[in-house]
Design brief:
Order of helices and strands: EEHHHHHHHH
Oligomer: single chain
Low-confidence stretches: none
Radius of gyration: 24 Å
Strand content: under 5%
Helix content: 55-70%
Strand order of the largest sheet: 1-2
Number of strands: 2
């Protein structure tokens, strides 16, 4: 379904572009509708490599425009609209400023977000799950060594050895995500590239799911190192 491109002003009934924040006819702040998304709200492409300095500049400019202090003497509907847009702006900025959150949000918009832990588990490669099991067994043995009073250097060395291949896999996934993000941006606006875009999105989804597993593995190792 093609997303709407026009929103209706509740004050005068006029139409405004979906990325407008104030009505072109009556200049009143527009109520926040259900259409649109974070990218549209900021007036940027649905890209994965954003200019963060530009994003921050847009955020600060919009923050000033929506600030509730400017609507202190306005109608209740306008005050409510300023609060809604200010809150939405903060959520949008927190999401788009972080690369991984940006990818996950894009996948959500495109209908490819993971639907809970079980759905995520079904799409993680068997080889990675085997590493999870092997690492958990190694961590159990290391906890046993520590409980038995083994020298700190001994079990810390084992932890560091266990972390090395996981770190290497994390770096490989970061590189893969960057490559896929660049491919996605290159396909934006290109006619007849729907199938290719879908393939890139599927790759991004797999990569994000695996990355979450890898992050959990590294977090578990870090907890053991600081125990």
């Amino acid at each position: 379904m093609t997303p709407p491109t026009i929103q209706v002003c509740r004050n005068c009934g006029g139409g405004a572009p979906v990325d407008a924040h104030f009505c072109p006819q009556c200049t009143k702040i527009l109520s926040l509708g259900r259409h649109g998304d974070y990218f549209t709200f900021f007036g940027v492409r649905r890209a994965l490599n954003l200019d963060l300095a530009d994003l921050e500049q847009r955020f600060r400019a919009l923050s000033r425009q929506f600030h509730p202090d400017y609507f202190y003497n306005a109608t209740p509907a306008e005050r409510r609209a300023s609060l809604e847009r200010s809150s939405y702006l903060n959520d949008a900025y927190r999401t788009l400023r972080h690369p991984i959150a940006r990818v996950e949000y894009l996948l959500e918009l495109e209908g490819l977000a993971a639907r809970g832990p079980q759905d995520a588990s079904r799409h993680v490669p068997a080889a990675l799950l085997e590493q999870v099991f092997a690492l958990n067994e190694e961590l159990d043995e290391i906890r046993g060594l520590r409980a038995a009073g083994a020298p700190t250097d001994e079990w810390r060395r084992r932890l560091e050895r266990a972390r090395a291949p996981i770190e290497a896999k994390r770096e490989a996934h970061e590189a893969q995500l960057r490559e896929l993000a660049a491919r996605w941006d290159g396909l934006l606006g290109r006619a007849g590239a729907a199938e290719e875009r879908r393939g890139v999105l599927e790759g991004l989804r797999r990569c994000v799911l695996e990355r979450n597993y890898i992050s959990n593995l590294l977090a578990g190792i870090e907890r053991e190192l600081t125990a």
